[in-house]
TrEMBL record:
Signal peptide: none annotated. Residues 46-429 form the FAD dependent oxidoreductase domain. GO terms for molecular function: (S)-2-hydroxyglutarate dehydrogenase activity. This is L-2-hydroxyglutarate dehydrogenase, mitochondrial. It comes from the Eukaryota. Belongs to the L2HGDH family. InterPro entries: FAD-dep_OxRdtase, FAD/NAD-bd_sf. Its cofactor is FAD. It is an enzyme of class 1 (oxidoreductase). It comes from Prunus avium (Cherry). The keyword Oxidoreductase applies.
Length: 434
């Protein structure tokens, strides 16, 4: 599983003092030895990317390739431990999202860039295609609407199929109609992130793990970041204010903190609260198919979208393992520091499988009792809650919040993986012209 791959390649960072010796040796810091009125050391830097998930890595790579000196701050001990290591690893086509939305535009563009990058850098991936299925007559109009929406978004090759044609492609599948998306695929996310990281490092990006951005303040219309070593937050009891061990003064900041991006933005003293959208968290579990030596499907199989997600679907990884998920479980009550430290409940209860069987059997009726094993869970950073309409990505620059050099990334859920290189290109082109 991807999570275990990441854990096996942990990169443990040094202390902040050692990290900044590296910065100075690379001439990334432009001033040294200064301190604030309370004695906290201050350093000026060029670009800071907060978060080393797949989007943060793609942004860091893009900026460093354009000649910027980039520092990536990550609260965990390695890259990609949050959303990026807990998803379906699907390369989406761009079918679901409203035309002209950022999700639609950046998914389609990101998919093109991602396939090209994977091919050029030998990243394991496979364009296996997807079938979105209607299992009841009431779902057929919705399937046609999806096809029309995908066409408007510029998704090529979409084909509406009768159920009998879909069954010839996938004998275990049962449906009345199916929409074939041949450009959908799967990717080894860990290999992708490792490649992005390596390329960024080779061009001068510095990575500081175990380093948490706990807040910031606006000074002379620029954001100063408050930094702490992660270990000093582990035992925080909430009774005393979080104090920084260092203050960074960047020219450019990308808040790509994933699940904690809105929470962190609220701690930027001087940033108007009205521009920060409400945050919602949707937990999703995955189960794996056991007791089988032959994979029942060759394509990704998706039901029609549901409230908060795109349904419990079939995904295949590059090793042929079959996964079902995710479901949608709304959660709350996460405090700031727990969010910074990714202290979410990622356990998968075996009993939840009983909710999966009837959903899967709508399109896979031969699923046998006892054949689902607990897999893994992920949390999606949503900007809309239960029974609310989905919300677009929010990529927020100075034109919205008025702070020079700050870009906030809010609600980068699915198709965030597919869109990652498109997001990076968008940020570098629109906000950080070099």
């Amino acid at each position: 599983m991807l999570k275990s791959k990441i854990q096996s390649l942990e990169r443990i960072s040094s202390s902040l003092s050692v990290v900044f010796k590296i910065l100075k040796s690379r001439n990334i810091a432009t001033t040294t030895g200064s301190s604030s009125s309370n004695g906290v050391p201050k350093e000026k830097v060029d670009c800071v990317v907060i978060g080393a998930g797949v989007v943060g890595l793609a942004v860091a790579r893009e900026l460093t390739l354009k000649g910027r000196e980039v520092l990536v701050l990550e609260s965990a001990s390695t890259f990609g431990t949050g959303i990026s290591s807990r998803n379906s690893e699907v390369i989406h086509a761009g079918i679901y999202y409203p035309p002209n939305s950022l999700k639609a535009i950046l998914c389609v563009r990101g998919r093109e860039l991602l396939y090209k990058y994977c091919s050029e850098h030998n990243i394991p991936h496979n364009q296996i295609g997807k079938l979105i299925v209607a299992t009841g007559s009431s779902e057929i109009p919705k399937l046609h609407n999806l096809m029309n929406n995908g066409i408007k978004n510029g998704v090529g090759g979409l084909v509406m199929m009768e159920g009998s044609d879909a069954t010839r492609m996938e004998p275990e599948l049962r449906c009345l109609k199916a929409l074939l998306s041949p450009v959908s695929g799967i990717v080894d996310t860990h290999s992708l992130m490792l490649s992005l990281l390596g390329e960024a490092e080779n061009h001068g990006t510095t990575f500081s793990y175990n380093t948490t951005v706990i807040g910031g303040h606006i000074e002379e219309n620029r954001l100063s970041l408050h930094i702490s070593e992660t270990k000093h937050l582990e035992n925080w009891n909430g009774k005393f204010p979080l104090q920084p061990e260092m203050v960074l003064i960047p020219k450019l900041v990308v808040n790509s903190a994933g699940l904690s991006a809105p929470v962190l933005a609220k701690r930027f003293d001087g940033l108007r609260s009205a521009v920060i959208p409400p945050a919602y968290y949707a937990r999703g579990c995955y189960f794996t198919l056991s007791n089988t030596t032959i994979c029942p499907f060759k394509h990704l199989i998706y039901p029609l979208p549901e409230d908060g997600g795109i349904g419990v679907h079939v995904t295949l990884d590059l090793n042929g393992q079959v996964k079902f998920g995710p479901n949608v479980e709304w959660i709350d009550g996460i405090d700031d520091v727990s969010s910074f430290l990714n202290k979410f409940d990622y356990s998968v209860c075996t009993n939840r499988a009983k909710l999966f069987y009837p959903l899967i059997r709508k399109y896979y009726p031969n699923l046998k009792d006892g054949s689902l094993d607990p897999g893994y869970a992920g949390i999606r950073p949503k900007l809309s809650g239960p029974r609310q309409s989905p919300v677009d990505f929010v990529i927020q620059g100075e034109d919205i919040h008025g702070i020079t050099g700050l870009v906030n990334l809010f609600g980068i859920e699915s198709p965030g993986l597919t869109s990652s290189m498109g997001v990076a290109e968008h940020i570098a082109t629109r906000f950080f012209r070099c």
